[in-house]
Design a protein that fits this description.
four-stranded antiparallel beta sheet, 437 residues, alpha/beta, nine-stranded mixed beta sheet, binds 5'-O-[hydroxy(phenylacetyl)phosphoryl]adenosine, single chain
């Protein structure tokens, strides 16, 4: 496959930048007005900052607007941030979060159309088109993954298999028997599918499957290498969040080097999470989005807590919409161990760089005598568990060094047999924190 087999579906992806900025500015003015007129919280925040919609005289004036954070959604649960009457809302989704009430998000008919369109553009960006057979293993339900991908796949003209998550043996049967050419699921679940297919004697390399649209959780380029080596697919990174729309905020193209943001609908900024000031392109910071066209639930400068940078070099694919680096981590995922800030993705990258490891791991934090302990459990191929004890020890040391070099702390490494670590059907849980809070 080469890039020329990828067909553009939206001129918006290729607009001259000046024109794109004009579209964004026009939409920004409208959305700020809509938010101000219809949502008490936005009006209050803007009044407190002495900003009115009339102050938005250029796209850069976006930086005058107050931020929105996740707790704003919780505090206004369930419908307090809606800018449309419920009568115009045709869909609700919710994201459970780890504690308390979920956050609820809403869509008008036009919002669903926008979402469908960005998903069509996403699939096209991965070289999919009419005639493709897409197995959609994102969960259907309140989670946005299932229905978001579903509508896009249908509109693209592909054949969509709405299998949802779970029931792994059936997934593999369908993958094989239905001639599936693309699969949508979390990268961790796809790893599980690869493994199970092997056990069932099915070599995924012999199937017509050629693309994976993987997202909803952080994953590293090392993980992509593992996935692509075990299959004949290109593994594309898709990003999104319920608050902004769901999947389809951004996705990689053929070049797999950064995610193009559909910035005619979702305006990206990167800020320093401490100072809240914008950071220069190329520097990492917190990703902030303003929705430029959503009616039911506009979001003004929503702080995602996801860490990325804006890549401002042109992409060889010709799209003019900007790219962000892959989201390697969210600020909430960070844990502090003996004073050192650690992200699970750093550990993932270190582990997978060592030959002999399997891409299944978990991080367990405990506390003994007031001191935090970290144990990294990683599965290794079963040969290591025969009687080659020396091999096992060497491998353990290599992993331990790799982790120490990457993260700067010494972690206990426990090598475990294949299948020991629980498999996820959706978003993987990488860290078990047993420290007393
Ligand atoms: O996970 C939407 C989605 C569904 C995206 C299917 C892609 C595919 P939420 O459940 O609201 O929505 O979770 C959003 O998941 O803020 C990120 O922290 C994380 N996330 C999503 N995609 C990626 C990705 C969906 N490609 C939260 N890489 C976001 C890293 C991701 N993290």
């Amino acid at each position: 496959m080469n890039q020329h087999q990828f067909h553009p579906v939206s001129a918006m992806d290729y607009l001259p930048v000046e024109q794109l900025r004009q579209v964004q500015f026009k939409r920004l003015k409208q959305i700020v007005q809509r938010a101000y007129d219809n949502v008490a919280l936005f009006r209050k925040r803007m009044d407190e900052s002495h900003i009115s919609p009339d102050n938005i005289r250029a796209l850069e004036d976006i930086s005058l607007l107050p931020f929105t954070v996740k707790s704003d959604l919780r505090d206004t649960y369930p419908f307090g941030l809606f800018a449309s009457s419920l009568r115009d809302v045709v869909r609700l989704h919710a994201s459970s979060g780890t504690t308390g009430k979920p956050i609820v998000v809403a869509y008008t008919k036009d919002d669903v159309k926008v979402w469908t369109q960005v998903m069509v553009r996403s699939f096209a960006s991965c070289g999919l088109h009419e005639g493709d057979i897409i197995q959609n293993a994102y969960g259907y339900g309140l989670f946005t993954g299932g229905l978001g991908a579903h509508y896009g796949a249908e509109e693209l003209g592909a054949t969509v298999i709405p299998i949802s998550g779970g029931n792994t043996d059936r997934q593999i049967m369908v993958l094989k028997d239905f001639g599936v050419t693309a699969i949508c699921c979390t990268p961790s679940y796809f790893l599980h599918l690869i493994e199970r297919a092997g056990e069932m004697g099915i070599d995924l390399k012999t199937l017509p499957l050629r693309a994976g649209i993987f997202g909803a959780e952080p994953w590293t380029s090392e993980m992509r290498d593992r996935i692509q080596a075990a299959t004949n697919i290109r593994a594309y990174d898709i990003y999104g969040l319920s608050e902004i729309i769901g999947p389809g905020v951004g996705i990689e193209c053929f070049h797999q080097d950064g995610l193009h943001i559909f910035e005619d609908h979702f305006y990206p900024e990167i800020i320093d999470p401490q100072t809240l000031k914008p950071v220069p392109d190329g520097n990492e910071g917190e990703l902030v989005f303003t929705t430029l066209s959503k009616h039911a639930m506009p979001m003004i400068r929503y702080r995602t807590r996801d860490i990325a940078s804006i890549m401002n070099q042109p992409c060889p694919c010709g799209r003019t919409i900007r790219r962000i680096s892959r989201i390697s981590r969210r600020s909430d995922d960070m844990f502090i161990i003996r004073g050192v800030n650690v992200f699970p993705s750093q550990i993932e990258a270190a582990l997978l760089a060592v030959e002999g490891t399997l891409p299944h791991y978990q991080i367990v934090l405990t506390s003994a005598k007031g001191l935090d302990q970290i144990e990294v459990q990683v599965e290794v191929t079963s040969e290591f568990f025969s009687d080659k004890i020396r091999g096992l020890e060497t491998l353990q040391q290599r992993i331990s060094h790799a982790v120490e070099n990457t993260v700067g702390i010494r972690a206990a490494v426990r090598l475990v047999e294949p299948h020991t670590i629980q498999r996820s059907e959706g978003k993987a849980k990488r860290v078990i924190d047993n420290r007393r809070k």
